[in-house]
């Protein structure tokens, strides 16, 4: 107060003044950490949803590559991966049909070659007879009998 010996001091304790701000900061940090934890958990779930079917497809490719022609990949997972799995399995089915058709055709030709009246010889690059049909065997047997 002017012209007096009195000194007036007015103040609010800092803890009291900043209490609401500190509470707001603490709540904000907790909410931020909770959101971060939820984001990590969601990303783990999404990663598993994608990684598991991709690994199953890779395993199926490995099985087929190792010779298991009947193995098919499981069709589960997100739509995009499921589409790839269906195409992979369709490719394997097509290859299997082609193999069966090729075997049936080879069997058909083998039957036709055996039944042919003409002599048919399969000779390798070194001139050795690899395969002969019945007519060729009869002809060669008759020829060898005449020579002796």
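^ structure tokens above, recovered residues below v
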């Amino acid at each position: 107060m002017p012209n007096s010996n009195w000194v007036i001091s007015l103040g609010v304790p800092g803890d009291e003044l900043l209490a609401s701000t500190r509470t707001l900061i603490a709540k904000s940090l907790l909410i931020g950490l909770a959101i971060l934890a939820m984001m990590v958990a969601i990303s783990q779930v999404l990663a598993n949803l994608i990684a598991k079917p991709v690994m199953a497809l890779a395993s199926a490719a490995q099985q087929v590559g190792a010779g298991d022609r009947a193995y098919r990949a499981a069709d589960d997972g997100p739509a995009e991966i499921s589409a790839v799995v269906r195409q992979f399995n369709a490719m394997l089915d097509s290859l299997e049909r082609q193999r069966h058709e090729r075997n049936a055709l080879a069997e058909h030709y083998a039957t036709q070659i055996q039944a042919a009246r003409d002599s048919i010889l399969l000779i390798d690059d070194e001139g050795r007879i690899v395969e002969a049909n019945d007519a060729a065997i009869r002809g060669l047997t008759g020829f060898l009998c005449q020579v002796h």
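The chain has two domains: 19-115, 118-148.
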